Amino acid sequence: MSTATQRLEQAKADVANAERVIVHEHAEQMKQQFKIAIEEGRRIESEIKRTGTELVQARAQAEPLWTQREVISKTRDALDKAFQANDFPSDEQAEEYEQRRAALTNEWHALTEKIIPLSGTIARLEAEHERLKFARSRAAMAVNDLRLGIRGELVGT
């Protein structure tokens, strides 16, 4: 065998060896990325559970306040209709109406003051929960893509 042929065979062997090393390194990188993607997915899952729990708690706090405020609104509307139905109210009736309406309005505003921070918390948690669900979906797609890539690398070796 000539020296040129030997060098050519050696070059081919070196290229084949380099390709094997690159494929192996790529497979190892994909496995590492796979582990990272799984860890990220698990972290996101725990964040989804946390925000979901906080959201349920915030809604549980707000629900009775919303219900009370709705009852007050309906009571105030009924009071208004009843007063408007009386074409000729006495001064005493007008004063009683104004006092009851003012008391209901004050109670409605007091409940609203309690509801506003809870509504802000609920809105923030809902947005965070949706963002996390989207991130979870992206992480799941990454894990799936990496799983398929690793499988393809393992079949190719």
Keywords:
157 residues, mainly alpha, Helix Hairpins, 2 helices, disordered C terminus
Short description:
It contains two helices and no strands. It has helices spanning 3-85, 91-156. The two termini are 31 Å apart.
Verbal overview:
- The protein has helices at 3-85, 91-156.
- It is mainly alpha-helical and 157 residues long.
- The chain has a single domain (3-156), classed as Helix Hairpins (Orthogonal Bundle), CATH 1.10.287.
- The protein is rod-shaped and about 125 Å long.
Q: Give the helix level as a range of percent.
A: over 70%
Residue fraction in strands:
under 5%
CATH topology: Helix Hairpins
What is the name of the CATH architecture? Orthogonal Bundle
Structural class: mainly alpha
Largest sheet: none
Secondary-structure blueprint:
Blueprint: H1 3-85, H2 91-156
Helix pairs in contact: 1-2
